[in-house]
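Run log, item B.
One chain of 214 residues. Sequence copied directly from the ordering sheet:
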Amino acid sequence: MDEEISIINNSTRNERIKNFFINNKKKLFFSVSIILILIISYLVYEEFLIKKKINLSNKYNESSLNFSLENTTKVKKEMVDIVYKKDKTYSPLALYFIIDNNIISSDKEINELFDIILKINKLDEEIKNLVIYKKGLFNSNFEGENNLIIILNPILNSNSIWKSHALFLMGEYFLNNNEKLKAIEFFEKILILENSNPDIKLETKKIIQRDLSE
């Protein structure tokens, strides 16, 4: 008897499942189609991003390798275009190449390119801090104390691995301007910072002993 009941229950359950699929086949087909479309779209988009990255890499490498004083205008156009692509890897590299090779003479234009990179979505935090530090380093040649501190504040108020670099930059800035008390203030912060760069910490000690000891 129990076996017969079990058979009936299984038959009933199978019938319900069958009826469910029959009655909802359009909805199920639509749902499966949507899922397949989403998967295919994702794969196509990922392939697009990979190709875009490869093309950008090729463009950067070709432009940097072919750089000479005779084709500065062409390289400038190519590198600026790469910056405007807002790629997390090659946009910062393009800007650094521009600065290192003095391709753009306008300080304002360089700072505008820095700001473009700093607005890149999902830029790694420490990469962003490196860009901020390099912006500070670039501006230290002509900016005043207040503006330079404003630029570097995101690092100075953090636990970034670039904090000791930023402190050292400010220390050197004040030392070069013969403001020794302000220089000591920044240099001493390097010595007590837990994650200070070892080379910077050693150089800081040398500067304090050589230039700032009474």
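Observations after the first pass:
- Residues 136-214 form one domain.
- The chain has ten helices and no strands.
Flagged for discussion on Thursday.
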